[in-house]
Design a protein that fits this description.
Layout: E1 3-8, E2 23-24, E3 27-28, H1 29-37, E4 44-50, H2 56-64, E5 68-72, H3 77-88, E6 92-97, H4 105-118, E7 122-124, E8 136-138, H5 139-148, H6 159-162, E9 169-171, H7 191-206, H8 214-223, H9 225-231, H10 234-245
Parallel strand pairs: 1-4, 1-6, 4-5, 7-9
Antiparallel strand pairs: 2-3, 6-8, 7-8
Helix pairs in contact: 3-5, 7-9
Length: about 250
């Protein structure tokens, strides 16, 4: 069975315009994520973006970074994933949102291991640091979801898996205790998130440590708690937005 990492990204963003292309240490934020994901052993790393002209630059970045790309629906993230999975013949994939620069290689590897052990439909990890892990999804479950959904607005896509009682929903196993935190926010949505990422990346690049892991990040943050405070206050705002925009629409 074939696995993949789907890096889901588009240039269109309103709260922090062109955030995928903002440079930190002279490297676009999306490239920081791509290079982290390239450390993981999988059949494909696929940048999943839209067919809009404005996203041409993301495809060029994928080519330069020697990963695959797929262009699909602008609003329907589920359909974009389904078509990408079909084109590359993927059985199971882990999503890495373009906002999540520090998505953990360790957690992604755990999700792949769990899929091969359990033949999982949907793997989540709600207790880990925000931005450290998104979801693991099987193609068969995704295909079923695309058959029953009745909306093209699938940004908040988990509801189609979790709230339909059709799938085996699993929590990620064997999570390191260091990663179970609700006080750290590692997703790029607002200006203070950008400041947070800059502080961390500046630190590790200054030390010439380009292979830093989530363990290293957490250790650094625990020694510099003022950096955690830069954007942690945004979590309540982020959660409220998630709840407000989560809608289950079935055929």
């Amino acid at each position: 069975m074939k696995t993949a990492i789907f890096i889901t990204v588009r240039t269109g963003s309103t709260r922090l315009p062109n955030k995928a292309l903002i440079e930190i240490e002279s490297i676009p934020t999306i490239v920081h994520l791509i290079r982290r994901m390239k450390k993981i052993k999988t059949d494909h790393i696929i940048l999943c973006t839209t067919a809009l002209k404005e996203d041409d630059i993301l495809c060029k970045i994928a080519v330069n970074e020697k990963i695959d790309f797929f262009r699909g629906s602008v609003k329907d993230k589920l359909m974009r994933w389904k078509e990408a999975a079909e084109e590359f013949k993927i059985d199971f994939f882990v999503t890495a949102d373009g906002d999540d620069l520090f998505c953990s290689e360790d957690l992604v590897n755990l999700a792949f291991k769990q899929f091969f052990s359990n033949d999982s439909d949907f793997i989540e990890s709600p207790e880990v640091i925000c931005g450290a892990f998104s979801y693991g999804i099987s193609y068969r479950a995704l295909k079923k979801v695309c058959e029953i959904k009745n909306s093209e607005d699938t940004e908040m896509m988990w509801t189609y898996f979790k709230d339909t009682n059709l799938f085996n929903i699993e929590t990620l196993n064997d999570i390191p205790t260091e990663f179970i935190r609700d006080d750290i926010r590692m997703t790029l949505d607002y200006q203070d998130d950008l400041i947070f990422f800059k502080k961390i990346l500046n630190h590790f690049y200054k030390k010439s440590n380009l292979n830093f892991s989530l363990f290293d990040i957490v250790d650094y943050l625990d020694k510099n708690k003022e950096i955690i405070n830069i954007n942690s206050y945004l979590q309540d705002k982020w959660r409220s937005n998630q709840i407000e925009n989560t809608k289950l629409k079935l055929r």
